[in-house]
Design brief:
0% helix, mainly beta, 186 residues, elongated
Length: 186
């Protein structure tokens, strides 16, 4: 787990779901309760409240999808990404969760000075602040890649099937507005 943002919980990987009266088990999503598709198990200990173990279903994109646990601008919220499928969870109230609005997650970047976490998939950039989505921007047709992130800008490129080239873009990190470069036009 990274420590880019302050957090009010501890989180550690565990090897198996061991039933315990003091630690509840939660499956994400809940329809995955048979555990057949869960590929990551985490024990979460919030600063206030009881510990719990989460079983997180894979996104199915293997090593191409992001795998990791990330702090977010909200000190009670963390992100789990499993083979490209992302979950945003409140450590103290695990029933309060949502899927990241990018799928599959191919890159994650954090901009602590702006209080943003940035996700990319094949076509979009999505940023979250301390209270949810800040902005979402569809930029490319395919193969979107973040190449550089600063407090001011997000630079990257995407594959343009019409020209058979990579088109560059620069996006304002605060607003998501396209500052320069091309956007896919369908």
């Amino acid at each position: 787990m990274d420590s880019m943002f302050p957090r009010q919980y501890e989180c550690e990987a565990v090897d198996e779901l061991v039933p315990s009266p003091s630690t509840r088990r939660i499956h994400f999503p809940q329809s995955a309760s048979d555990g057949l598709f869960s590929s990551v198990l985490l024990k979460v200990a919030p600063a206030s409240g009881k510990s719990w173990i989460g079983a997180f279903q894979s996104g199915g994109y293997g090593p191409m999808g992001v795998n990791g646990v990330f702090t977010t601008p909200n000190p009670d919220v963390f992100c789990v990404s499993v083979d490209g499928r992302g979950y945003l969870l409140h450590a103290s109230t695990p029933a309060t969760w949502s899927e990241v609005a990018a799928f599959p997650i191919l890159d994650v970047r954090q901009i602590p000075r702006l209080g943003l976490i940035v996700f990319s998939d094949f076509t979009d950039l999505v940023t979250y602040g301390d209270s949810g989505i800040r902005w979402k921007n569809r930029l490319g047709a395919d193969g979107l890649k973040i190449e550089e992130v600063s407090d001011a800008e997000i630079r990257g490129s995407w594959w343009n099937p019409a020209s058979q080239t990579r088109d560059a873009f620069v996006v304002d990190a605060r607003s998501g507005n396209l500052l320069s470069g091309a956007r896919w036009k369908m």
